[in-house]
Write a structure and sequence with these properties.
- It is a single chain.
- The protein is α/β, with parallel strands linked by helices.
- The chain has a domain of 205 residues: Rossmann fold (3-Layer(aba) Sandwich), CATH 3.40.50.
- The chain is built from 11 helices and 13 strands.
- Strands 2-1-3-4-5-10 form a 6-stranded parallel beta sheet, sandwiched between helices. A 3-stranded mixed beta sheet has the order 11-8-13. The chain has a two-stranded parallel ribbon with strand order 6-9.
- Helix 1 packs across helix 7.
- The mean pLDDT is 97.
Length: 300
């Protein structure tokens, strides 16, 4: 018997990896809708898309952190109100919802990993918009809604920190990279694998609803990630120079500490993700990232 899955935001980095993971498994009848195919701010369109589905994985989001500062209402329409439409449609049709959120719901002033139940206090508009989505899931789907917070996501689809470092390596002798922000670089394929496992556990009635943290284990800084990306790609890591975040002023404040705890996964019977420095070599061996690394090596 097949189970119908809907993936929203299916054209993005994570959405594409979730589709790949579901296709590699068995028993899933998968529909992927890009942001052009489904506007989550349209409640009628959302209901029509959700109707008949058993599991909805919401990868649709406003992700431009800096632009959200000047367009918080628009960002919240997608990240908050749009999620509410999805949650209400799931509640009405009996579908499970796996919703992606972010470490930006926390202030970033901790020294120990944030537990799933730690108090939230976003420091920017993007974080506030994502927190509104979390509240919608908790309110409307207390028993069938799953919010998975992630952070420092990179992968083979679209621009991200790892691809940017490899692209800049072709054009610059040295790169200044922030060394005073701490987090957990997370390969989107590893998160997609964990999400699909959570969805299957939820279908089997084994995973308690609520909040989970979907990030790699271990921690580093952007500087540490850049150096390791260079080293694994056959580039000289000494070309990376450490600087403070103040060297790169941005419209939106960034949490200085984005390390999340993973205490709820054992209750769902789903393993925590591997360490970030175990994920990165596997990601860099994928054809797309390996090609970027090869181009960086041959450009010098």
């Amino acid at each position: 018997m097949t189970t119908r899955w809907l993936v929203t935001g299916a054209g993005g980095m994570l959405g594409r990896d979730v589709l790949t993971e579901l296709a590699a498994g068995q028993g899933a009848d998968v529909t992927g809708l890009t942001r052009h195919q489904l506007d989550v701010t349209d409640p009628s369109a959302v209901y029509a898309a959700v109707d008949g589905q058993r599991v909805v994985v919401n990868c649709a989001a406003w992700t431009d952190v800096d632009a959200a500062e000047a367009a918080e209402e628009t960002a919240t329409a997608v990240n908050g109100t749009g999620v509410r439409h999805l949650a209400r449609a799931c509640a009405d049709t009996g579908a499970l919802l796996l919703h992606l959120s972010t470490d930006y719901v926390f202030p970033g002033d901790a020294h120990d990993p944030y537990a799933e139940g730690a108090p939230t206090a976003p420091v920017n508009a993007y974080g506030r918009s994502k927190l509104a989505g979390e509240h919608a899931v908790a309110e409307l789907l207390p028993d069938t809604g799953y919010t998975v917070r992630t952070a420092w996501l990179y992968g083979t689809h679209g621009r991200n920190f790892v691809t940017t470092m490899l692209e800049l390596a072709r054009r610059r002798e040295t790169l200044d990279v922030v060394a005073d922000q701490h987090g957990q670089p997370t390969w989107s394929r590893a998160l997609a694998r964990q999400l699909t496992a959570l969805g299957r556990a939820a279908l089997a009635g084994l995973a308690p609803a609520g909040i989970y943290h979907g990030t790699a284990t271990g921690r580093t800084t952007w500087y540490g990630l850049a150096r390791e990306t260079f080293r694994l790609s056959g580039l000289d890591p000494e070309r990376i120079r450490p600087v403070g975040a103040a060297a790169f002023p941005r419209p939106a404040a960034r949490p200085a500490f984005a390390v999340l705890g993973h205490g709820r996964w054992p209750a769902a019977g789903v393993p925590s993700q591997p360490r970030w420095d175990d994920q990165l070599p596997k990601a860099l061996n994928t054809p797309a990232l390996a090609a970027l690394a090869a181009a960086a090596r041959t450009s010098r």
